[in-house]
Design a protein that fits this description.
The two termini are 43 Å apart. Strands 1-2-3 form a three-stranded antiparallel β-sheet. A two-stranded antiparallel sheet has the order 4-5. Helix 2 runs antiparallel to helix 3, helix 2 runs antiparallel to helix 5 and helix 3 runs parallel beside helix 5. By secondary structure, it is α+β, with helices and mostly antiparallel strands. The protein contains eight helices and seven strands. The N terminus is likely disordered.
Length: 261
């Protein structure tokens, strides 16, 4: 088989100078009718899960790169819009990092690709600190609890204050918008996680490829389920941009669209 790279739903290969795509969900569905090849669907889904986790980590990396660029600029310093942008980029990086590497899944959810066993002591400390901040400070908020190095990420105080017409009850909240240590942990840890999952994805795609090579007439099957890439990526220009990493030997590609209004 002349396949050279894969994405979650398609198999990409080249014959001469032509780019060809095949819908691997349909390919493995057809093969699942034959007992000796029914395991290929599970192998494909296993690779697809890791591929999706790599895509999450690349979103985290892009968020960090954008944040680094913003921090090097004097634009909007000390303005609420600047503070909220920094917070949004940092929170995005945290959430996508944890979603890819540590987030437990319920039935029907994709889940993560856990990396803890591949981390050394320092990396594991960074990883667990990021996960704790996500769980206790950003999503499942636990008020007034120390999360990392005695830092309370979210605090709330019930207050009573006196006005001319009498006492009034209110609440004050404080949450950390930005912390340099967390940014540095993510900057160290995200490339580590990408390397681990890239290797894992390579291994799973290679295993799938070896098993698919055993299918008689495999290339004819791929051609039978050929897929127009514009149907996946939305336009010819978007398809060319998305395909570029695969042409260069990459294993996964990520693209973004704007949802309907």
């Amino acid at each position: 088989m002349s396949a050279v790279g894969g994405i979650a739903v398609c198999w990409y290969w080249r014959i001469m100078s032509a780019d060809l795509f095949s819908d691997m969900a349909k390919v493995t569905t057809e093969l699942s009718r034959r007992r000796e090849f029914e395991h290929l669907s599970d192998l494909l889904q296993s690779a697809a899960k890791v591929s999706a986790c790599v895509a999450d980590l690349r979103v985290a990396a892009e968020s960090l790169a954008t944040l680094e660029e913003l921090m090097g600029s004097p634009r909007g310093l000390n303005r609420p819009s600047r503070r909220m942008t920094e917070f949004a980029l940092l929170a995005t990086a945290v959430n996508f990092y944890v979603r890819a590497t540590a987030l437990a899944a319920r039935r029907g959810e994709r889940g993560c690709s856990n990396i803890e066993k591949q981390l050394d002591e320092d990396q594991l400390a960074d990883h667990r600190s990021i996960v704790a901040i996500r769980h206790l400070g950003l999503t499942h908020v636990t008020p007034n609890v120390e999360v990392d190095d005695d830092i309370v990420w979210y605090e709330q105080w019930p207050l009573a204050f006196q006005l001319e017409e009498g006492w009034k009850i209110g609440f004050a909240t404080r949450h950390v918008q930005f912390r340099q240590k967390l940014y540095e942990q993510l900057a160290r840890q995200t490339p580590v996680a990408i390397r681990i999952l890239d290797d894992r994805l390579q291994a799973r795609i290679s295993r799938f490829g070896r098993e698919f090579d055993k299918v008689p007439g495999g290339e004819s099957l791929l051609r039978r389920h050929a897929l127009d890439p514009t149907a996946v990526f939305g336009s010819e220009a978007a398809a060319k941009q998305a395909i570029a990493p695969l042409r260069e030997g990459g294993l996964t590609t990520t693209f973004f669209t704007v949802g309907p209004r």
